[in-house]
Amino acid sequence: MGKIKIEKFRQELVAQKKIGLDSMIFIYQFADHPKFGPLTQAVFDLLEKGKIQAVTSTITILEVFIQPEKEKNQFIISEYEKVFQNLPNLEIVDVNWYLARLASKIRALHANVRAPDALQLSAPLLKGYTAFLTNDERLEQVNLLKIIMLRDYL
């Protein structure tokens, strides 16, 4: 992956300022994914420096912790918890009435979007954000937010 593409990616995120994050952003980061890890590291760096703000829903917590729970890896569980509790400029939105109602509207407009994805997309919408970072091509069809695809920056 070229330095130019990472810089273009950073510029896109900073231009958006407030971004919804899909679960896979955290999963790739925690796994130090060989292809997408440098991009997710850029996201975390921008959050830590206060150059962007991000939101995700508690669906991310559910999805990120599945593997370490299966493995009963208390060290990894503890490390993930520290990240979620201490990462600056990240807000985690609970799945509540408002999020669920917004997700139902997304599902009504986009039948191919699964319920967990609709909840994820609802978090930035609820907060008035205009962009969502993912690598899930099924979400490209959603026109309620600017969908930023990681793979476009490889």
UniProtKB/TrEMBL annotation:
Pfam families given in the database record: PIN
Source organism per UniProt: Candidatus Roizmanbacteria bacterium RIFCSPLOWO2_01_FULL_37_16
Domain named PIN: residues: 21-142
SUPFAM superfamilies, alphabetized: PIN domain-like
Name of the protein described by the UniProt record: PIN domain-containing protein
